[in-house]
Amino acid sequence: MSEQNQTSLFAKILNWTAIALLVYLVLVAVGTVSGGFKLASGGTEGAKEIFAFATNPFVALMLGAFATALVQSSSTVTSVIVGLVAGGLPLGIAIPMIMGANIGTTITNTLVSIGHIRDKEEFQRAFAASTVHDFFNLFAVAIFLPLEIMFGLLEKFSAALSHLFVGDADLSLKSYNFIKPLVKPAVGLVKDAVSFLDGKAVGVAMVVIGIAMILFAVTTLGKLLKKALVGRAKELLHSAIGRGPVAGISSGAVVTVMVQSSSTTTSLMIPLAGSGVFNTRQIYPFTLGANIGTTITALLAATSITGPNAEVALTIALVHVMFNVFAVALIYGLPLLREIPLQLAEKLARIGTRNKSAAFGYVLGSFFVLPGLLMLAIK
């Protein structure tokens, strides 16, 4: 083996070792947020008091969208939500937050499309390809949030599934949880490091540290996975788009799991749309697959939660999965509904091409100004 090949092999081993350590850090971080939130809030009742302002599901929805738009990572926000739920955050508040995270995550590829703004034709194609994701997620929330408020469909279905895995059924995996002994010592170290603080301040510090760890770990993990797999991801993207909706959705999910970032997956497609290699209709199903693939992070985060709150943590992670799967099945599965996000995206792209300020106004208004104003107004 040549020296160059040895160096390349060593770099790959180092990269994958770092990826494994960052996955572990995500688990520790979620456990830290959960433990800290329990200490700071005093458990479930305390959590209800803290989030009393968000008992309105629309406030919770906007909070999720706003937070995700700020950090530009639904993986980060959903991981934090899993930790908060394990610490006592009610599911009735967490579920709209999860839906909001779906909306907020689309800002990244929309910003990427702005990079094509100098060329009108390119910008129109790129902007349409990016905003079809926005409109699909908004449409999904418009359908499923009222259903959730009225009937609790996602919560009930996900709770039944999570009970199967961590409940007292025969198929329970509770006794096989190997994550707890791996994560507990590290969470204990974080707690010990802030033990000089008084009372609930220990819990607050743990939550802050945990969120910072999640931000760092998820961001760095995405970069390392992109470095390790983005070449293959691009190959998969090119080979899948245009081969039909099932191939597009499946490969979108696989690529997103590979790079641990729906923002990366969808952003890869925008230059292809802008250059005219693929049109919005071809890219559309791939985007939906990215929605499904990004839910793996919350599921991973849920595995770090043990004890009596393990089931509810897995429930909120499964809500994220089911929401996206059901939305794709319903909206994309029905031809009449399937066309609505496409038509809206193409119409907005035409408006944005004629009036650039409208495009910028859409980005700022939809992801920052409107959620902020609605939260203030409803509060």
Automatic annotation (TrEMBL):
Keywords: Cell membrane, Membrane, Transmembrane, Transmembrane helix. Its main location: membrane. It is a multi-pass membrane protein. One of its GO terms (molecular function) is sodium:phosphate symporter activity. The chain crosses the membrane at residues 13-37, 49-71, 91-114, 135-154, 201-225, 283-306, 312-337, 358-378. One of its GO terms (cellular component) is plasma membrane. GO terms for biological process: sodium-dependent phosphate transport. The keyword Cell wall biogenesis/degradation does not apply. It comes from the Bacteria. It holds the Pfam family Na_Pi_cotrans. It is found in: Cell membrane. NCBIfam families: Na_Pi_symport (NF037997). This is Sodium:phosphate symporter. It comes from Pseudoalteromonas rubra.
